[in-house]
Each structure stands twice: as structure tokens, then as C-alpha cells.
Description:
By secondary structure, the chain is of the alpha+beta class. It has helices at residues 5-15, 28-37, 65-76, 133-139, 157-166, 172-190, 227-231, and strands spanning 22-25, 42-47, 60-64, 80-81, 91-92, 96-100, 104-115, 120-126, 144-149, 193-204, 209-211, 215-218.
Amino acid sequence: MKIHEYQGKELFRNAGVPVPNGFPAFSVEEAVDAADKLTTDIFVVKAQIHAGGRSKGGGVKLAIGADEVKQRANDMLGMNLVTHQTGPKGKEVQCLLIEEASDIKRELYAGIVLDRSSGCFVFMVSTEGGVEIEKVSEKTPEKIIKEWINPNGNLKTYQARKLAFALGLEGPQIKHATKTFLALWEVFINYDCSLIEINPLVVTKSDEIIALDAKINFDDNALFRHKDIQKM
Ligand code: ADP
Ligand code: MG
């Protein structure tokens, strides 16, 4: 099962994985309300569909001020969004996420999946965030750094720190990233996820680490254990 970015970010927020402040909106009115509730003037309006590559198809737009949020919401709600992951038919946008724009210094990648070949979970990071990770893996596989986790074990603090160092993080960024990776692992294991992907995970100008995107898939066989996820 897949959930939307705004729902994934809600799980992240509750688990201590930093995400931008934001609210879902199913109508233009709700989008304006969301903008009013946020304490910023620079927003990002994001189409919520079960596919990635939204920005290239016009599904992620910056908006300055609530009026621009209104315009963007008007344009985006009901539009048919085509990305490389939707196929040519595209997907209708029925929901938006209105969130605060982050002050981005670097765009990184972080993901966790089950590696069937080794029978372990694998925690992956890369300095090449914000681009298609499939291309990075094909052309420059050495740029994806991995730590393996036993199926009955946990991501260890030293592994999380190793990943932070491999990303070239420094100073307070290392502490923030280590904490974020450990929290991300908790989400993965507690919710019986089959995949978590954050692309991009950003370093902000104030050295914070924030998940700007959130893709989460769940193991359907374990859904009976998670009534809250079933509702989503
Ligand atoms: P997709 O992967 O579907 O294109 P993302 O959520 O990754 O959508 O957003 C695409 C790009 O838009 C990101 O790589 C980032 O540069 C920018 N972006 C997304 N959300 C924000 C935000 N809250 N603040 C600033 N930039 C953002
Ligand atoms: Mg993305």
C-alpha cells in the first residue's frame, strides 16, 4: 500500500523526522486557509498523487503570498498530472500539500528497502539528491552509500553516524542527520514498511536536516497490525 506525501510527512513528524510545516488541502479555500495558518510568506504548493517526478510535470510550485497560493491551487486542483511514473494517462490531482518553503543548501537522498539478495534491510544515502536515484545507481553506483541491517536487528547509532559522515556533513549537521536516520529507521520498522524514500533530504542554510519529500510503501501482509495506516 502507498500513501500520500502529506500522510508520510505526518508519520515522519510524529516520529521525530523533521519535515516542513504544512497542511493538506482538498479545495482552493482549504489551500488559502493552510497558507494563512503558516507563519511564512514563501510557500510550496505540491500535488498529492501516488507518483514521483511531480515537479517536472508542473506538480510542485513555489508561491509567494496567499494570493499566489490561491492561483496555484486553482490551476493544480483537478489537473491531470503526467510524470515519468504515472504513464501517459497521468493522474488527476484531488489534493494538495501547502507547506513552508525551506532554505536549501544541499539536496541529498536517503532510503530504506529490503535487500532480498542479502536478506537484510539496506539503508542508503547519496549526495546526489533531487535527481532520479535510478540514474545515479545506473551511472555512478559508487555515489550510493549503504549500511545493512539484520532482519532481527536495528540500525545502530555508529551506522547512522557513518552515513552522515559519508554525506560530507559537518558540525551540527552530523548530530541532526544521525538523529534523523535513527528516527527514520523507527518509522520503517514500527510500521512494517517495504520502502521509505526521501528525495530530497535537505540541509538548510541553518544546518538543519529536513525531509522535503516522503515516499512510503507498506507490506500489505502486515497491514492488519496498523489500523491507523489502513484508514489512510
Ligand atoms: P517530486 O520528487 O515528485 O518531483 P519533491 O517533493 O521531491 O517532488 O519536490 C521537487 C523539488 O521541489 C525538490 O527537489 C525541491 O528542490 C523542491 N521542493 C519541494 N518541497 C520544497 C519545500 N518545502 N521547500 C523548498 N523546496 C521544495
Ligand atoms: Mg522527490
